[in-house]
Amino acid sequence: MFSALHKVKSTEDGPLGPGSDLLAALLGTFVLLAVSEKEGLGVRSYQMDMIESIKHAYQARETKEAGSQTYKLFGGELGRDTIVIRNEATLQHFYFGGNILFRSRADAINGANALGLIKTIGDTIKKKIDHIREIQIQGHADAISNDTFNLDLAARRAATIFWILKNNSKIDPYKYLMSATSFGEYKPVQRGENEWNREKNTMANKDKVDQDRNRRIEIVLFYKSGKNEL
What we know:
Elements: H1 2-12, H2 20-58, E1 61-64, E2 70-74, E3 82-87, E4 91-97, H3 111-127, E5 132-140, H4 147-167, E6 177-184, H5 198-203, H6 208-214, E7 216-223
Parallel strand pairs: 5-6
Antiparallel strand pairs: 1-2, 2-3, 3-4, 4-7, 5-7
Helix pairs in contact: 2-3
């Protein structure tokens, strides 16, 4: 019994006296937590700067969903269009639904306003590019046509945005990781972590409102999480 207690005591006794190892461990934990919190605040400030830059560029209004980090930009030069932006710990999602960027069944950008919007997004990303680890451009479709057509259409639309960011905003994919991918009709906005099937997918596209929400482009920014990534 004595030897066991002595062993426990000795593991807590550091070079500065009894309990110093335990104190050092606690201080180390506190420092790690403080650094982690500071890095989190840094990412959040970059996210909010992105939102403010886009809002200012279009003189748009902003609303925030209660209890979440989801923002909507609308009005001003955006007119009836709405951009939804969702912040996570080290991610930022930009949602462009309906006909904001593309006309129905088309993969060519929908006019000068849509092109200008993506160029504004791209130029804003470029200003924060050293804090961003990866850019993903995700194409999504509704379930009106067959799934083969939808997968291909969403891929072509994502590629269109990719080339605008590369050629117009001068984001170099060799230097900054950027990809374009397609989910087709398989990831409607209603899809969660629960079991999914074709019937649920059909119900998720039951009316025009749902179809407009699902027919979208998402730009996902993966922010660097610490100094070792900068």
